[in-house]
Amino acid sequence: MNDLMLLTRIANRPAVFRASDIASIIEIDAITPVPQAPDFVAGLTALRSRALTVIDSRMALGLAQPGPADPRSPVVEIGGHPYALLVDTVEDVVAMVGAPTPLAATLGPQWSRCAHGMIETAAGPAIVIDVSALISGPQRAAA
Amino acid sequence: MDDLLADFVAETREMLQAIEGEIVAWEADPADRERLDAIFRFVHTVKGNCGFFDFPRLEKLSHAAESALSEVRAGQRRASGQLVSAVLAIIDRINDMIDAIDGGETIPDGADEILIAALEPKGDEPDSESIQAEELSGGRAPRQASGSRSIRLPVELLDRVMSGVSDMVLARNELARRLREHGTDPALEGPFDRLSSILDTVREGATRMRMQRLEHLFGALPRMVRDLSAELGKQVMIDLDGGDVELDREMIESVRDPLTHILRNAIDHGIEPPSERLSAGKREIGTITVSARRTGNRIVIAVSDDGRGIEPGRLRKKAVAAGLIDSAQAAALSEEQTLELIFAAGFSTADRVSQVSGRGVGMDVVRANIERIGGSVTVSSKAGQGTIVFLYVPLTLSIVEGLTVTVGAHTLGLPRSYIVEIARSASRAISVDRLGDGIFLTFRNERVPCLDLGEVLGLDQGVDLDRATFVFIRLVSGDLFAVAVDRVLDNEDLVLKPLPPVLEGIGLFGGTALLDDGRPILKLDIPALADRYGLASQARARPSVQGAADIHAEDPGEHVVVFEAFGSRRLAIRMPAIRHIHTLPASAIDRSGPTPLVSVDGMILPILGFILDDEDATSTRDSVIALRLSDGGSDILYAARSIIDTAELTGPVVPAEDDPLLEGTVLIDDTIVGAIDTHRLFARYGRMGASTHRPTCRLARTDAWAKGFLEPLIRSAGYDILDEDDPRTADVAVVLDQAEPAATTGDVVRLRSYPDAAGTAPDSIYRYDRDALLSALARAHSKGG
Q1: Architecture of domain B559-685
Q2: Which of A34, A79, A136 is closest, CB to CB, to B522?
Q3: Inter-chain CB proximity A30 and B170 less than 8 Å
Q4: Chain A within 8 Å of B442 (Cβ-Cβ)?
Q5: DSSP 8-state secondary structure symbol assigned to residue B175
Q6: N or C: which end of chain B has fewer CB within 10 A?
Q7: Residue B10 in 3-state DSSP?
Q8: What are the GO BP annotations of this UniProt entry (chain A) (predicted)?
């Protein structure tokens, strides 16, 4: 794995995205809400000629009341569709220190579902986010 | 995978696609050397390419096919059906292997030896002598090699260019808005317009890059028809037409399955077995024709067969037996409505289930698939003679004409193709009733279910029905319903992008698009909406007998166009009488006669509505708006200063005394408007606009220019042409330059060859001044007729 990570905070916890997953980072100015959409879908926004689906990462992890989000938003592309992710803050691009370690059992089901593992970074330990699990939203009660 | 290998896979695939049709055609005519060569080249190329890579099995297979085919080419062997089948089997296997290579899988182990052995000649094959005899019987003309050059490009690159162009269009729109805001600077305007028009051209080109000729789809059909008819013991020939029609790449993929299904149906149920055909007096071999053509924004693909057709009586019986309709309903169905029954879910016309079709997954799925991409399907059939299925599909998946509407804070796009009418609730013609949880509109004697879009979207507040605008939507099944929205914004071309799964799951939307200002919006998925609220389900099984009756019961005089006539009077003309609204150059109007005349589309028509002493009428204007009215037989124009609106006639028409051409006056939007009595208008002027009396024009047809250029124009203006030496009297004579008309009777229209009159012939008309020429003819016409 090569080894640059985007360090963010999601629900006030350190979380990193693999730089290779991130297509770009955009500044979101307006979000068009989508009626009847699940609550972790914040709506649509535009990146040049494309409409992006905005996913609130905090709600996708099953956290009910997120605070304000960083206007800067990482853009990922999954299955040919672009998504912009809302996080608390976008902090930095950091290098990974050492190899990823398996998940600790105490992360809780929603975080475990959305994580590839844990790593050490220059800024401390963080969870590596599994983007496609994240955008599929919180798992229902059965999980 | 390494680039070289990727190229090999892509090239082989492309060749495979290209020769599928060839091989079946070759079987039909084994003497066709060109096709044999094409197939030979394919296996030869595959074999050659295998040399670069390590695919021993692929090499062995293609080598075997190559040897067998080269024997045929050398005249040592004849192409029998058995050989063709064996070659086809090898090509299929090559195809499988290419798929495996592409997928990075190991090539499935199979009995290649059996395939190769099948190529060996059998004892009953005709010997070489008969081939030689046939070869002597004549060669065929070599087919035209395709002249256009092409290269292969990765799809991803095309998509990138497409989205780049879309970005440019958005940036251009943004720039246009800024320029408008800052006031127009002529120094910028010129270059900007130029940039803008170049961009439009580029956009069109980029859109065309996504287009593919239908040949790609058609190429696979002969093979399919061959295999299927052989399996069913039938003889079927396929005829393809319109392969050069271009369609969006994605659209071609969406049409593939429905088309395949229809062909299977045609072969299985439509075409009779050979013996049955012979006894019905038909050719033993059935014919299926697949033709495509483009009409405006749509492509029509027609699949017709000359089989047994669909017998309406039998269809009705089956529908009753299946419980779709009761016998009383069945008896009330027209023939057309009966045919619609084949689209009912779970309905099959097959007597028994065969391996190929008749399993109940049928035309309903075809229709659903075609409707999903914004198209429609119709069928027509004559018992005993055959069936035609028409597929209508839009040119591209990605751009639809849309209407933007707002509900609460949301802006949504509705596809235009479904919308039949838009009405405001303020209009007295609509009454709104709430029954249970539903809303019903009464509109032109029809009760129409209505959805509050605010409720549908789950907004806190529904649409205020007293101020709402209702968008009337007619589904392909014929059902009518309305959606209530807050406001209708605009017509826009929506460039649709597919929805991500999480939004598709909502089941209400059909794609995202960006508005001109860059805001994203969602397109409402109309069929899904109708489905969810049960607005279409019944009609699927029960064709809309009721609906059809209602349409005929409508009062056709309800809608009018309101316009400001010359003399500043407001007038209204009933919509059904209006055929078109023209903008005509004022110079084309000839006002010398008692009734002004004008040439439109090559016809000379009376134009009414000028107040003759109104200076404004023609002298100070470059162009005049003219409403073209038609009673089916003749056309009349009515001049307008401006078109105001369309409106509904809600109140009574009060008879008026002062103008014989007015039916009376009526109140529209609190203004008194005169309603034109079209009946009297046509009674009085209709004959002038009729094309029954054809005036005659004398013309020297010995002159090449007169014959080639002038004659068609004069004919299209409604004249019959008389030769110089024709003894009959002509209404008008047209002569060139100094020539003298042979036997002058009516007017003489003199044409000159040079634009500048320069004293030589002051009354003449320059021979390319079309308007002046037509006006002169119109003048002559008004005197004569």
Answers
A1: Beta Barrel (2.40)
A2: A34
A3: no
A4: no
A5: H
A6: N
A7: helix
A8: chemotaxis; signal transduction
